[in-house]
């Protein structure tokens, strides 16, 4: 009986230990990634592919004609107006990036190193995010009564006797465009830099002081090099946002300035979708080259 019971036990154990059909490890990984691949493919890759396809189509005032023509790229790259618009957009990008790096770094530095309590840091950081709870359009338009001819700035300067008449270039100018963009996008620089600075080991500062380094030497040789990944991530955010911005340029310049995204918007309003698609492809290539240049200079993998 004991032998029979032992045989039955072994048989059950074999049935339990012998698994049914199992996916290989590599197949299980692909199955787990399938939902994300489908979402990215449908909502990200497919639209980009369609833009690339449409950029080769022909068109007139009424309809699109599927074809394979390089006319749209020839018109885009061969037009001096297009090159001038790209240079103007790059000008905005460089100026806004410079100002957001300067402002964002010092705001993040203050929050990370001069505010000791974590709760106070979080409260002040949330205060910085409060304006972002409203629409970009509302925050942008809020500058109009401040910078206008009869706005707060001009009225205050005239009443104090500093200027005899209103300053015209405060609004509907490149200055207004840059000011609004800096206001809109500085937080995208503050956040990654603040995150990077909070990870710095404070004992490095003590070691630098013990070695005789001054405050500025610690900033230049310790803080800034360690903050480069955060600066790079913020730079990617700011560069891509400024290059793709059209509403700020349209509203704050009063139609006196242009950007590539605004040019594409005007082309789409005229039903010139293939021309706008060609511009979008060129803009995408330019932005990817700028992002690649940033990643070439700074390795951000440690922050990901």
Summarize the model shown.
With 304 residues, this protein is mainly alpha-helical. Helix content is 73%, strand content 1%. A hairpin with a 4-residue loop joins strand 1 and strand 2.
Give me some keywords for this one.
MetI-like fold, transmembrane helix, cell membrane, MetI-like, two-stranded antiparallel sheet, 304 residues, transmembrane, globular
Strand content: under 5%
N-C termini distance: 64 Å
The count of DSSP E runs of length 2 or more, i.e. the number of strands, is 2
Mean pLDDT: 86
- Percent in helix: over 70%
What kind of sheet is the major sheet? 2 strands, antiparallel
Tally of contiguous helical segments: 14
User: Judging from the principal axes of the Cα atoms, what is the shape?
Assistant: globular
Major sheet strand order: 1-2
From N to C, what is the helix and strand string? HHEEHHHHHHHHHHHH
CA radius of gyration: 28 Å
What is the assigned CATH homologous superfamily?
Answer: MetI-like
- Determine the structural class based on helices, strands and strand pairing: mainly alpha
Poorly predicted runs: 1-5
| Number of structurally distinct domains | 1
CATH class: Mainly Alpha
CATH topology: MetI-like fold
Question: What can you tell me about this protein's structure?
Answer:
Belongs to the binding-protein-dependent transport system permease family. CysTW subfamily. Residues 86-294 form the ABC transmembrane type-1 domain. It is a multi-pass membrane protein. One of its GO terms (cellular component) is plasma membrane. Keywords: Cell membrane, Membrane, Transmembrane, Transmembrane helix, Transport. The chain is an all-alpha fold and 304 residues long. It has one domain: MetI-like (MetI-like fold). It has 14 helices and two strands; from the N terminus they run ααββαααααααααααα. It has helices at residues 2-17, 25-54, 71-77, 80-114, 118-129, 136-141, 144-147, 152-159, 174-198, 203-210, 215-243, 247-252, 260-269, 273-297, and strands spanning 58-59, 64-65. Strands 1-2 form a two-stranded antiparallel sheet. It is globular and about 70 Å long. The model is unreliable at 1-5 (pLDDT under 50).
């Amino acid at each position: 009986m004991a032998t029979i019971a032992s045989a039955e036990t072994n048989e059950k154990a074999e049935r339990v230990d012998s698994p049914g059909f199992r996916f290989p490890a590599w197949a299980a990984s692909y199955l787990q990634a399938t939902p994300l691949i489908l979402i990215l493919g449908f909502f990200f890759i497919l639209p980009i592919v369609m833009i690339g396809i449409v950029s080769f189509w022909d068109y007139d005032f009424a309809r699109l004609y599927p074809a394979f023509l390089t006319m749209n790229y020839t018109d885009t790259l061969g037009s001096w107006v297009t090159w001038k618009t790209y240079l103007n957009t790059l000008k905005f990008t460089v100026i806004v990036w410079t100002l957001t790096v300067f402002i964002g770094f010092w705001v993040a530095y203050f929050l990370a190193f001069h505010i000791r309590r974590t709760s106070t840091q979080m409260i002040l950081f949330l205060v910085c995010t409060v304006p972002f709870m409203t629409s970009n359009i509302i925050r942008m338009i809020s500058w109009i009564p401040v910078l206008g001819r009869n706005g707060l700035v001009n009225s205050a300067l005239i009443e104090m006797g500093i200027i005899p008449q209103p300053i015209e270039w405060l609004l509907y100018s490149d200055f207004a465009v840059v000011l609004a963009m800096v206001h809109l996008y500085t937080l995208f620089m503050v956040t990654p830099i603040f995150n990077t600075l909070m990870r710095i080991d404070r004992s490095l500062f003590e070691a630098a002081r013990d070695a005789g380094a001054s405050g500025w030497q610690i900033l230049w040789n310790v803080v800034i090099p360690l903050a480069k990944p955060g600066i790079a991530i913020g730079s990617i955010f700011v560069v891509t946002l400024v290059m793709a911005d059209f509403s700020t340029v349209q509203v704050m310049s009063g139609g006196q300035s242009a950007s590539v995204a605004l040019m594409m918007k005007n082309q789409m309003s005229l039903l010139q979708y293939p021309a706008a698609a060609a511009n979008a492809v060129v803009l995408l290539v330019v932005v990817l080259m700028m992002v690649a240049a940033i990643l070439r200079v700074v390795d951000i993998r440690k922050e990901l």
